[in-house]
Amino acid sequence: MVEWRLSQGLTPYPEAVAAMEARAEAIARGEADELIWLVEHPPLYTAGTSARPEDLIAPDRFPVYETRRGGQYTYHGPGQRVVYTMLDVGRRGRDVRAFVRSLEDWVIATLAEFNVTGEIREGRVGVWVRRPDKPAGPDGAPREDKIAAIGIRLRRWVSFHGLSINVEPDLEHFSGIVPCGITEHGVTSLVDLGLPVTMEDVDLALRRTFPAVYDGAAP
């Protein structure tokens, strides 16, 4: 059984981390079901285990939280759907790479519900969309913007943290960091792509696409 939980309003980040850690421990002990938790946060930056100090451009702009998830700096804020995935990776094959790829596949399938083609790139974590409507990069390569970030942590083979999809956040807030350490490409959102998509639309799409990616488990 996978429980789904939706939190209204803005969830403080420390509160979310404490809740995830407690639930992951309970899952590992066999005392709780797996959980998909949908939240929004107030504006903040998080630093993953690979974060470089020079990538925090505006350290005084928003609260900065060090976290032991994988990855570098990310932004969370209103208009961004954060999906915390407390899933039993031990039961799902004990393959961390395959699990991260499953998160990418889930995001790609969710974006496809809105006729958006999400793609992954070697050496660039997350999900990207091509932007033929934007000028090419300084190296002449076609512009690609990041629309979803992924970063997880495992404890006793149970995952926590997860992914975020940009629905309609203030994209200027990303300028306080180098998102995921990548300077050659930008950041976008579903609304920035010209789609009148709401958070509720994305939540429904996440639930519709989940079973096909995760063992046929009903949402």
* Quaternary structure annotation: single chain
Mean pLDDT across every amino acid position? 92
| Secondary structure: number of strands | 11
Largest sheet: 8 strands, mixed
Give the class from helix and strand content and strand pairing.
alpha/beta
The end-to-end span amounts to 9 Å
Rg, Å, rounded: 17 Å
Q: What is the overall number of helices?
A: 3
The portion of residues assigned to helices is: 10-25%
Uncertain parts: none
- What sort of overall outline do the alpha carbons produce when their principal axes are compared? globular
Key features?
3-stranded mixed β-sheet, 11 strands
Description:
This protein has helices at residues 13-28, 96-112, 199-213; strands at residues 2-6, 34-39, 44-47, 64-66, 73-76, 80-86, 119-121, 124-130, 144-155, 158-166, 186-187. The longest helix is centred in the middle third of the chain and has 17 residues, at 96-112. Helix 2 (96-112) crosses helix 3 (199-213). 36% of the residues are buried. It is 22% helix and 28% strand. Strands 1, 2, 6, 7, 8, 9, 10 and 11 form an eight-stranded mixed beta sheet that branches. The mean pLDDT is 92. It is an alpha/beta fold.
